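Posted in: Protein Modeling Q&A

I'm a second-year student putting together a small comparison for a lab meeting, and my supervisor asked me to include a predicted structure for DNA-binding transcriptional regulator, GntR family. I've never done this before, so apologies if this is the wrong subforum. The sequence is pasted below exactly as I got it from our records. If anyone can share the structure token output, I'd also love a short note on what stands out.
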Amino acid sequence: MAVKNNPLNSIVVSGPIPAHLARAVIEETLRNAILDGRLPCGTAIRQEALAQLFGVSRMPVREALRQLEAQGLLQVVQYRGAVVAPLIEDNSLETYELRLLLEAQALRLSVPLLTDEDFETADGYIQALEAEIDFGKIGTLNRQFHQALYCKAPNRKLLALIEAGLIEEERFLRFNLEQMNLGKLCQDDHRALLRHARDRDVESCIAELELHLHRGVVAITHYLNTQHAKQP
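Accepted answer (user: helix_wrangler)
Welcome! Here is the predicted structure, written out as tokens:
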């Protein structure tokens, strides 16, 4: 009889985890496994199995799963519990509309407070994006670039909501970079965003962000249309 493959076997835990770090370690480990595809869409995530894997009680496991659900990486399904969320859902276009509202507000709050060091950090992410060929690292660098421009916004709840949207995009980027048209054109978008931020031109920054996010809308629309066409 064939042994059923367990996706959790792809996760390696090195040694015992300090109790005060358990939730954060579990959350980061599972997030990375979801983002890089080791835990595919639809994979059931069992609390008991995770507790045994990480050598902890169920409490930090529940807290980690709750955080991942808030980030859109997990869904709670009746009779199955937590499962890895679909890569893209039919409401993902609405997510991009919400992202524009949230990220535009973050630019309004953050850009006037950004320092030369912040600008250099953002520019460093652009340079790294131009040189990077690893799809997973590209997704992370893209998220970090945007966060560098929003980092001075004093509204922590706003930044948390934005981070959730960026994590969702990061996951999509890792699997669909060609459809997203990421490359020279996309880095031109990033450089324009950074240029307007350096000039403290918030409205031009927001206009550039809208164009930038529209490329994501086009890619997701294409992806969803392709998936619907495959359905019988």
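A couple of things worth pointing out for your meeting: The mean pLDDT is 85. The longest strand covers residues 74-77.
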